[in-house]
Every structure is written in structure tokens, then in C-alpha cells.
Design goal:
It is built from eight helices and two strands, in the order αααααααββα. With 179 residues, the chain is mainly α. It has one domain: Four Helix Bundle (Hemerythrin (Met), subunit A) (Up-down Bundle). α2 packs antiparallel against α7, α4 runs parallel beside α7 and α4 packs antiparallel against α8.
Length: 179
């Protein structure tokens, strides 16, 4: 039996480099660009029962993970745009566990969120390519954590976030010998 920490964090936890360099942001941008294709390829063969299987005991189903990625990445994109257009804005946090239990996350076809991610990530990549190094340091305030988060850190975290949840699904497929 795999340990709970590995099931929760199959690629480890996000580690923010200090300082955040242009090379980090370029690498993260490439990860953000690839995620929609990788996710679609990973889930395309899954049937309804497999989509409704949690990636670990007490975890979300594959369906919920796909919809969560759309929800969380929309929020991340908006946070970055707020930080680019306002001075240290306070963002509105949300409870992703509560969102994951709503009908639009537990019931509909994942193709809707896959399409959202495809379009959103294209815009996100375009925006990141246009950033200057000074933009990486612009911040927003997250009242849930009580911390200021930089644009650079946010790009890195959400590149990791996509790989993190993709790994959840891939590991589930491996454990269950799903094609």
C-alpha cells in the first residue's frame, strides 16, 4: 500500500525558488501550455465509472479533479491580471473542497472543463510571454493565508498544480491498470 503522503503529493510539494528567474518562468509557461493536451490525453480513455473513481481514499474523483483544475486556474489567471493592473489587490479566496461538491463539478461531462482549460491556458501563455521581469514581483494579498503572493510565485505554483493533479490521475490509472 502506498503511503498517504505520496498519494496526496505524488510529485512532492511546490518549492518556490528564490529568486524567481526568467528561466523558471519560461519553464513554468511551457508546463502551463502543455497541461490541457496532457490532461485530455490522460482522461480520454476513461469511462463514466473510472471518471467517478477517487484518486485516493477521501480524495476527489477524476471528474472533480478535472473540473477543479478549470476552477482553480481561472482564479489564478484572474489573480495575476489583478496584480498586473492594481497595486497589491486583495483577492477573493474560495473553498475548493466546497466548490468540488457542487453539481457543476460532480455531474457534467469533463469535456466542458477540458475546453475551458484549452482556451484559458492559451491566453495565460500569451500573457506570461508578455511579462517583463519586473512583473514577476508584482503582488496580490491572499486573505486566507494572510500572505502577499507574487505573480512569479503564482505562475510557478499553478504550473506545479497542474502537474500535481495530472499525476493523481496518472497514478490512479497505473494502480488500476487502466489504459
Amino acid at each position: 500500500m502506498e503511503n498517504l503522503e505520496f498519494l496526496r503529493y505524488p510529485i512532492g510539494k511546490f518549492e518556490k525558488p528564490d529568486p524567481i528567474l526568467k528561466s523558471h518562468v519560461k519553464s513554468w509557461r511551457i508546463e502551463i501550455e502543455k497541461l490541457p493536451r496532457q490532461l485530455k490525453a490522460t482522461v480520454s480513455t476513461l469511462d463514466k465509472q473510472q471518471l467517478n473513481t477517487p484518486y485516493r481514499e477521501g480524495g476527489w474523483t477524476v471528474r472533480q479533479v478535472v473540473h477543479h483544475l478549470a476552477d482553480s486556474h481561472i482564479n489564478a489567471f484572474c489573480r495575476i491580471k489583478l496584480a498586473l493592473t492594481e497595486e497589491n489587490p486583495t483577492i477573493k479566496p474560495y473553498n475548493d473542497d466546497t466548490w468540488a461538491k457542487l453539481a457543476d463539478t460532480t455531474e457534467p461531462d469533463i469535456k466542458f472543463s477540458l475546453k475551458i482549460l484549452e482556451g484559458l491556458h492559451k491566453r495565460w501563455v500569451f500573457l506570461v510571454k508578455a511579462l517583463e521581469k519586473k512583473d514577476y514581483k508584482r503582488t496580490y494579498f491572499h486573505p486566507g493565508s494572510g500572505e502577499y503572493k507574487s505573480i512569479g510565485e503564482t505562475i510557478g505554483f499553478f504550473a506545479w498544480h497542474g502537474r500535481h493533479h495530472l499525476a493523481h490521475i496518472q497514478k490512479l490509472k497505473e494502480r488500476n491498470n487502466w489504459k
